[in-house]
Amino acid sequence: MRLASAIFLLFCGFYLLTMSGHTYSADEETMLTVTRSLIERGDVAVVTVAESPFVALRPGVRDRGYSPFGVLPSLLAIPFHLLGEQIASSGARADYATRFAVTALNGLLSR
To answer: What is the pTM of this model?
Structure first.
């Protein structure tokens, strides 16, 4: 058990050192925006602006945009987003800190 934990932590550390800390696709942006919507409004509907990169959204009730993906990744990302906000409150840029923290979730899920 101790060896398995050590290997897990080693790979998590490797992932953190090599991850980019930003999103690559509209799918990731959509997941991040649903996470923010859940935190700020308690709703899965996404409020966007015309220039937003959320090409994955689908129209829904009352002309609101919704993600075609499940809500589970966004729910799992909530603690990571809140951690990023805590890091940002200590002086780092808020958007970058929350994106970095949320993309760290992928390393834990892939192990």
So the answer is: 0.72
